[in-house]
C-alpha cells in the first residue's frame, strides 16, 4: 500500500493504524514527486491519497492510480463541494477520521 500525505503526523498515524490492523504499508510519500518515484518502480494494490498536497491536489496521482487499476481511498479536510472530480465514486474520508472509518473505507475500495 502507498500512503501519500504531506502532513507528517497524519502520515505517521495512517501508517501506524494500517500496520496495527494487518495492512502492509510499502511506502509513505510526503509529496507528489516521492509518490511518482515509488510508482515508477512498484505497483501497489491500494493507495491512500491526501486530496490536498502542498499547493495542489492529488488529482493527477489519482488518475495514475486509476489507469493502473490501483484502488484508491482519499483523505481530506475539504468539504464535498471542493473535491476534485477524481474523487467521484471512490471512498473519501473527512479529517479527522477514526481508525474504524479508515478500515471501512479500505474495504470499500
TrEMBL record:
UniProt-listed SMART domains: REC
Organism of provenance: Devosia pacifica
Keywords per UniProt: Phosphoprotein
Biological processes per GO annotation: phosphorelay signal transduction system
Superkingdom as given in the UniProt entry: Bacteria
Domain Response regulatory span(s) in chain numbering: 1-109
Listed name of the protein: Response regulatory domain-containing protein
Family annotation (Gene3D superfamilies): 3.40.50.2300
Chain positions with 4-aspartylphosphate modification: 50
Entry keyword Transcription: no
One Pfam family hit: Response_reg
Amino acid at each position: 500500500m502507498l500512503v501519500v500525505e504531506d502532513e507528517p503526523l497524519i502520515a505517521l498515524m495512517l501508517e501506524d493504524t494500517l500496520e496495527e490492523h494487518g495492512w502492509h504499508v510499502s511506502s509513505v510519500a510526503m509529496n507528489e514527486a516521492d509518490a511518482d518515484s515509488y510508482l515508477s518502480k512498484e505497483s501497489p494494490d491500494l493507495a491512500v491519497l491526501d486530496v490536498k498536497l502542498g499547493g495542489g491536489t492529488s488529482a493527477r496521482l489519482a488518475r495514475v492510480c486509476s489507469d493502473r487499476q490501483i484502488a484508491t481511498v482519499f483523505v481530506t479536510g475539504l468539504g464535498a463541494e471542493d473535491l476534485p472530480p477524481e474523487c467521484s465514486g471512490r471512498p473519501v474520508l473527512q479529517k479527522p477520521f477514526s481508525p474504524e472509518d479508515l478500515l471501512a473505507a479500505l474495504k470499500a475500495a
